[in-house]
């Protein structure tokens, strides 16, 4: 696996990362309806183009996971469903912590796998909201990196 910081965000890459996003969301965001997924999918290319730092994990030159970082915040982290559980998400997040000083993430409370993943890597919830940023009824957990937990590893 290769991790690369992406500067050139061409249409092919954006389409491939949108496919990765959808594969991941369908596997992990079981609280979303089909309509929710279709609606949110329309915003993914814009988010990929707009995020300050885009980092992509490649397996055999095919994008299989990505993260977006802005202002020390992990804005997005998605791993293709068929690649989940192999450590790619952890490697991306650790790369982000080391290179972008990631110290905060927001996660859907209804995605217990993601919550557990971030807790395992040293993040702790400090705030909760009843709705997501678009006002939809999907509670969010705001989490901060507890560096003391990371240093004990």
The general outline is globular
Give the CATH superfamily: Gcn5-related N-acetyltransferase (GNAT)
Total of domains: 1
Please state the second-level CATH architecture.
Answer: 3-Layer(aba) Sandwich
Widest sheet, order of strands: 1-2-3-4-5-7-6
Q: What is the percent of helical residues?
A: 25-40%
| N-to-C SSE string, H for helix and E for strand | EHHHEEEHEHEEH
Q: What is the arithmetic mean of pLDDT?
A: 93
What's the count of strands? 7
3D structure, described in words:
- The protein has one domain: Gcn5-related N-acetyltransferase (GNAT) (Aminopeptidase, 3-Layer(aba) Sandwich).
- The chain contains six helices and seven strands.
- It has helices at residues 11-28, 34-41, 44-50, 88-100, 112-120, 147-151; strands at 2-6, 53-59, 62-70, 73-79, 104-108, 123-129, 140-145.
- It has a seven-stranded mixed beta sheet.
- Strand 3 and strand 4 form a beta hairpin.
- Helix 1 packs across helix 3 (44-50).
- The mean pLDDT is 93.
Quick take:
By secondary structure, the protein is an alpha+beta fold. The chain has helices at 11-28, 34-41, 44-50, 88-100, 112-120, 147-151; strands spanning 2-6, 53-59, 62-70, 73-79, 104-108, 123-129, 140-145.
């Amino acid at each position: 696996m290769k991790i690369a910081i992406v500067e050139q965000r061409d249409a092919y890459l954006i389409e491939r990362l949108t496919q990765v996003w959808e594969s991941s969301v369908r596997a992990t965001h079981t609280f979303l309806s089909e309509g929710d997924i279709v609606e949110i999918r329309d915003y993914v290319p814009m988010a990929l183009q707009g995020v300050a730092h885009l980092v992509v994990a490649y397996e055999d030159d095919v994008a299989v996971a990505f993260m977006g970082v802005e202002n020390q915040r992990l804005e997005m982290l998605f791993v293709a469903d068929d690649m989940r559980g192999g450590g790619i998400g952890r490697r991306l997040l650790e790369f982000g912590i080391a290179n972008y000083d990631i110290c905060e993430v927001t996660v859907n409370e209804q995605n217990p796998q993601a919550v557990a993943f971030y807790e395992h890597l040293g993040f702790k919830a400090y705030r909760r909201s009843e709705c997501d940023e678009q006002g939809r009824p999907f509670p969010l957990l705001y989490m901060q990196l507890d560096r003391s937990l990371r240093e004990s590893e």
